[in-house]
Design goal:
about 375 residues, about 20% strand, alpha+beta, nine-stranded mixed β-sheet, BirA Bifunctional Protein, domain 2, elongated
Length: about 375
Amino acid sequence: MNWLLPEYLADALPAEAERIERLRRTVLDHFRSRGFELVMPPMLEYLESLLTGAGQDLKLRTFKLVDQLSGRTMGVRADITPQAARIDAHLLNHRGVTRLCYCDSTLHTLPATISASREPLQIGAELYGYAGIAADLDIIRLMAGAFDKIKLPLSRIDLGHVGIFQALAEAAGLPEDAEENLLSLLQAKDVPGLIEACAEVPAPYREALLRLPQLYGGAEVLERAAAELPPLPAITAALDGLRHLLAGAPELPFSIDLSDLRGYHYHNGVVFAAYCDGYPAAIALGGRYDGAGKAFGRARPATGFSMDLREVGRLAPAARSAGAILAPHVGKDQRLAAHIAALREQGEVVVELLPGETACEGPVCDRKLVLVGEHWIIEAIQED
């Protein structure tokens, strides 16, 4: 059984690998056209660098090992975002705005969902050095544009803001364990559990926390939230920021979910999740995570998003690829060799048969080179 792979790991066979590579090139070209520069961080880093500011979730998802050279604990990255923050803060050291993108494998100890791989191919973009809501809007538009490029329509983009819950928890004076309990109940949308847990929370924060799971839907949710939540400065600012996003991109399928607190220990502002038809979970996630570079020497404003290109590849429509051209073995025929070289320069895939080989098992050849008189011409291969 040596051919078996561990659970939730899989090979990408030629058709899937070709589709993923096409998507990778399309999305990275989209990023590049908007000024996002490609970086390639290493697969392994010292553990404390990988987990900086990432909270408990990333700790549980990270494979750990001992470096034989230094004796220090290393980790196999479960997320490239902290690495991009390190590059911005410590290596590039730009004073102004930095735009970075990446695409590479990550590794998880456990799959994120029952259908997910433990080796996501993470592709994403990060914008550093701009604290205003315009940067969040730019990132969301970049994400939506990527899905347009690969012809995978988004059905909705949920917007939230972790600052609202943070403001309520702080104003209510919640101890850390109570805050964690309420956070988990809100994430699970466990209303009965939330009612019980909020019994000792002082008014009006008790009522506000109980309202959060009901504050989801269209743009009208923001006005309901303004009327029903305490007028704390942080909540007012958060609602204003969400209004700005809705007004800034009316063409996008925005919806509001103020109890969406995924990444609470990492994000500290706007968060968003993109969905498409036929897939039960979010296909892309993002948000603001200011200060992630503090451990590397500079606490920079930051916002970004990422997605698993393997999952996207399963949902995106397959592009119809041109079949290959089957050519006989060249041997010493320089005219045939030159003709094949010219076809390849034009972008054609030409499979040259080896001596004794009579058919090509892959890729699919729908044409062949045949000698007619003194000229090599291309003919369609007729199916039997």
